[in-house]
Amino acid sequence: MNIHHLYSTLPSFMIVVFCFVAALIFGSLIEYWVHRWMHNSYRVGRVHSKHHHSNCNQGVIREFMEYAGGSSIFMWPIFFISLEVGLSWSIGILVYAAFSAYSHQLQHDNPSRCFWTRIHYIHHKYNMEQHNFGLAMDVWDRVFGTYKPYKLEPLEEELLQAEKGYLDIKWW
């Protein structure tokens, strides 16, 4: 069965939802591998190490622009299938880029509010340069064997519970 046959037999809404969800999953996989590559590439690693030494981030908007720009290479070819498929795929990629940029910044500025994961916080805090590459989730770290759990000490857990809001982060 080729893609055009599948496209012609499924209802339009199902195709849009499928492409959107597939793009979210694909975006998370790309995020994982790009971050892992940053830790294993000498040239890119030098630039990325500045991020680790300063333990600060560019802000949600700048991170999003960087992620969206890098993801664009994976967006435009899908438009050859159809406009509908291309749009749903691109929106999925951009939604994940926004979620990832927000999660990344939140784990730097206010990790207690990142209730779905603290993997990136742990990656930085405990210098796990060969572990925990996910920014917004740990799924691919678990799949590829790079997940390394770390139990926060009770005092550290208390310190993380600071009274900051979900939007109390660097945006620019």
Features:
mainly alpha, elongated, 8 helices, 63% helix, 172 residues, 0% strand
Following the backbone from N to C, one meets helices and strands in this order, namely HHHHHHHH
- Helical content class: 55-70%
Q: Which word captures the global form?
A: elongated
How far apart are the first and last residues' alpha carbons, in Å? 47 Å
Taking all Cα atoms into account, the compactness measure Rg is: 18 Å
Number of separate helices: 8
Strand fraction: under 5%
Average residue-wise pLDDT: 86
What structural category do the secondary elements indicate? mainly alpha
Number of strands: 0
Biggest sheet statistics: none
Report the uncertain regions: none
Report on the architecture of this protein.
The protein contains 8 helices and no strands. Helix 2 (12-40) packs across helix 3 (42-54), helix 2 crosses helix 5 (83-109) and helix 4 (60-71) runs antiparallel to helix 5 (83-109). The mean pLDDT is 86. The chain is 63% helix and 0% strand. By secondary structure, it is mainly α.
